[in-house]
């Protein structure tokens, strides 16, 4: 087990992949990739968020693979079992997703691509890339936004404005080590990232995943997220796209989901989960998995959808 694979047990114990491989990105960065489920099944690609890893998608991987899907999950650079890279940019995230798609899907093969938080931003960054357009049949964006991430965050309980934005940037960009998972650490993580009614075992699972992320990696990517502007990527995401968020999300509040819905060329609607926080795939696993299965059934195994041209 890698030193950066969290010791999570129960429903969030890391599923055993059918096979693992390494995808090599445009700048040579090496990405840990896992494939689960039948090799010839309809494909789903999962991109996790900041400070997480493939383990974050454990519930989706298990349920989708058991239901006859081929599930591909990968560790973003510096996260999980993917080595850290000196290059931390939105463009690098897009390069990495293209590399994973090329390494795991046959030419022209279509998949549903789901991204959570920074994983959703990865999808937006890659929206205009040829490799993405070749393989994306539909997209699910979970708990994510395209810009103004620090300004809109509600992690710091102050009125919106310059003071809150400055303090939020300091908190999210802290270099401090997270340390062991203690009751205090769980309480802090729950407040910042999860809904008030989230079950203790789900808080524990998220805490172990987040605390396993090296602090240098956490800090490096926090600087990228602080200035991120992918509004142009949203407009280029022309495949059918569903948006999902929690009403108690402090990191990417529902204002982001509504802005995405207004800007997306082919939005399938916004699902707002009452009382759920930022960690939607862990907090509401059945809903997230069900939405992915619906997209596969409609856009991968169902009739070929009508495509919307860019700029339409």
UniProtKB/TrEMBL annotation:
Residues 44-288 form the AB hydrolase-1 domain. Keywords: Hydrolase. It holds the Pfam family Abhydrolase_6. It comes from the Bacteria. One of its GO terms (molecular function) is hydrolase activity. The keyword Hydrolase applies. InterPro entries: AB_hydrolase_1, AB_hydrolase_fold, AB_hydrolase_sf, Epox_hydrolase-like. This is Alpha/beta fold hydrolase. It comes from Streptomyces eurythermus.
